[in-house]
Amino acid sequence: MCSPVLLAWDGISPFRTARGSPSNMARSWLVVGFFVTLIGLERAVAVGRRFMLLGPVAALASTVGLVLAAPPLAVDSLLLLAYLGFAATFGYLLWVARTAHHTVMFAGALAWLASGLLWIMGFSLPTIVPWWITGFVLIITGERLELARALRPDRPTRIWFFTAITLLLVATGIELAFPEVGARLRGFALLLLAAWLLRCDVARRGLRQHGVLCYSAVCLLHGYAWLAVGGLLALAYGHQQSGFLYDAEIHAVLLGFVFSQVFAHAPIILPAVAGLRLAFRWFAYGAPLALGLSLTVRLAGDLLAHWELRRLGGLGNALSLALFAVTTVLAALLAQRGVSPDRSISARLALQAAGAGGEQGGNDDARLSRRPVMDERWS
């Protein structure tokens, strides 16, 4: 949990330079490396393929190398190996199950691989960050599609979705050569995708439920709203190399959107990877509420160019992520003390909270089949 807190704590540190620095790269890679490790392990455990451990192991090794100031060549090689292993994981999943969600997640993995290549080629950190954002958005959106296979979208809905995804990838590439045009197009694509998630994702159904079902829905929709904010900032202000507006955009997406999804999907990831049972209590809402309020303060400081307000928001961001870690530990301890089944979070209940519906059943492990499978609903 220390790695994500660094992203929030960055609000208390001075602004990075346009070129970036090794320490800035180390902090940023700790965050991305955390997710490469987490998602890679989750997939490796689910599928049971040892080669899928390559990405997580290389990510951990490169993170240790950055912390210990290992030779740059060794760290860069491990970083690239982590991205390659991660992309290979989703490439394999796409090969065995040709579904829309695997296609989207594979595209996200390739975006992260591109960011690693750009770093090795000497591009600055602000140039690489849009590729990280695109990777996060595509991977998380793919997860939402995977967990909502009961959706039967009509043709306009499919066109809307794939237009947003395609525009996001194209805009991120354009931003390398034409930063202003690419950034604004990317912002528009993020807005399109956020609107699609708010309108078409089944998370809205969870608001009518109780307990963990409602909690997951609130976290998901909260994240979609922050994705829209990040898109609006990119559309309005264009490409930023540093400063208040740079801080506002990346943290609206990387904190507001990404970590809201972490809060919502923790009931799936923790039982799958660590075998933990979590007992739901009202205090679970504390972390997403604190994140939303502190991020609002942070962005207010950014937009008003008020350093102390931004600093206060950054401190609140770090504390909100720490609060999530504390409440998760408490939930696990309560579950071990014998919480009744209806108040315990299981992987199946979490899937329902995420909107997977009743079609999980026998097809839930379709991606594990060695025989390629075509997804009819999204073709």
TrEMBL record:
Keywords: Membrane, Transmembrane, Transmembrane helix
Superkingdom assignment: Bacteria
Native organism: Thermomicrobium roseum
Chain spans, region Disordered: 356-379
Name the UniProt record assigns to this protein: NnrS family protein
Transmembrane segments: 25-41, 53-74, 80-97, 104-122, 128-147, 159-178, 184-200, 212-238, 250-270, 282-300, 312-335
Feature: compositional bias, Basic and acidic residues: 364-379
